[in-house]
Write a structure and sequence with these properties.
With about 325 residues, the protein is of the alpha+beta class. The chain folds into 2 domains: about 140 residues, Jelly Rolls, CATH 2.60.120.10; about 120 residues, Arc Repressor Mutant, subunit A (Orthogonal Bundle). Helices cover about 35% and strands about 25% of the residues. Strands 1, 2, 3, 4, 5, 6, 7, 8 and 9 form a 9-stranded antiparallel beta sheet that branches. Helix 2 packs antiparallel against helix 3, helix 3 runs antiparallel to helix 7 and helix 5 packs across helix 6. The chain is globular, with a radius of gyration of 22 Å.
């Protein structure tokens, strides 16, 4: 049996795949599969799919290598709504999503276009001449996602398809999310959860009237949230858990947490890990590899890169400067 792949173009495929390589990373939720098979659609030479799940949302980053004209029917995803985003393309013709094989997309092409497809809606992918397409797709159960994120009222009907959708903010959120698929750092969990919450709010939640600055968490809510983050350090933490502790929706919690601390939850967690690393650098003789592991980084290289980004100095230089 084949594998379903959601994307903007070529979007999702349901086809027998006989030759494939599957690589699991150190992060159990992250998987990459590459297919090169004669039973892929005509003129499609290779398909690489990287997948991860945040907040019950399946996120795919799809890369297609093609040799000309491509036309195929996408998997209908009977139970999942899809949002697809075109990220990159190389070829003589632009990729497009269609409602039928012989019906060109009636909406004029513009860069950074997306599609929105309700569960079970028929879609086709087409390009008259393409060599490479990189696209993102997220799929989800609308009711489950709205319930999980505390979205009570939708901005518009969720059963209306959009073959080309233009929203720079939404496109950027999806791009940031797919850029994090292979990130095994513990903070990537909170980061991805926050992005999926923001995407859902952008799609379904009515904009709130501005009433000045966003109110923060109560003293007890903030104490409980920080206490939980500290108790789990440096393990990954889900935004859903923090929001439940505070008795808020994920979107509300994220906004209130930032109003209280000046940082998003994932930023606070990362800063706290760096602060722990500073303490170990100053007060122990531990090597950089040991400190990296103790603070949740994959290795000394990953630790050094992140430490320098946030402090402006490498861990070794920072330690030497303060101990001499």
């Amino acid at each position: 049996m084949g594998r379903s792949v959601a994307s903007n173009f070529p979007p999702s495929i349901e086809a027998p795949v006989h030759e494939e390589r599957c690589v699991m990373s150190a992060c159990p939720a992250y998987q990459t599969t590459t297919s090169t098979d004669a039973e892929l659609p005509e003129n499609m030479a290779m398909l690489t799919v990287s997948s991860r799940n945040w907040n019950g949302v399946n996120v795919d980053l799809n890369e297609f290598t093609c040799t000309g004209r491509v036309l195929f029917q996408m998997d209908s995803h009977e139970e999942s709504t899809r949002l697809g985003t075109l990220l990159e393309e190389v070829g003589r013709d632009h990729a497009e999503t269609r409602s039928a094989a012989n019906k060109p997309n009636p909406i004029a092409y513009k860069p950074k276009h997306m599609y929105f497809a309700p569960a079970g809606h028929e879609l086709w992918g087409h390009s008259s001449d393409t060599l490479y397409v990189k696209c993102a797709a997220i799929s989800f159960d609308v009711a489950m996602l709205q319930d999980r994120l505390g979205i009570c009222e939708s901005l518009g009907p969720v059963d209306t398809p959009h073959l080309r959708l233009f929203d720079d903010r939404l496109w950027t959120l999806v791009k940031l999310l797919t850029d994090s698929i292979s990130d095994t750092d513990p903070t990537a969990q909170l980061y991805g959860d926050s992005l999926t919450a923001a995407i859902a709010a952008r799609l379904f939640e009515r904009p709130k009237e501005s009433k000045g600055s966003e109110s923060g968490l109560s003293a007890i809510q903030l104490k409980d949230a920080l206490g939980y983050l500290e108790s789990k350090m440096p393990e990954k933490v889900e935004l859903e858990t923090l929001a439940k502790i505070a008795g808020l929706s994920q979107s509300h919690f994220s906004r209130a947490f930032k109003a209280s601390t000046g940082l998003a939850p994932y930023q606070w967690q990362l800063q706290s890990r760096i602060e722990s690393a500073r303490n170990l650098l100053l007060n122990t003789n531990d090597g950089l590899e040991d400190i990296a592991i103790a603070t949740g980084f994959a290795d000394a290289v990953h630790f050094g890169r992140t430490f320098r980004k946030l402090t402006g100095a490498t861990p070794a230089a920072w330690r030497m400067d303060r101990l001499t």
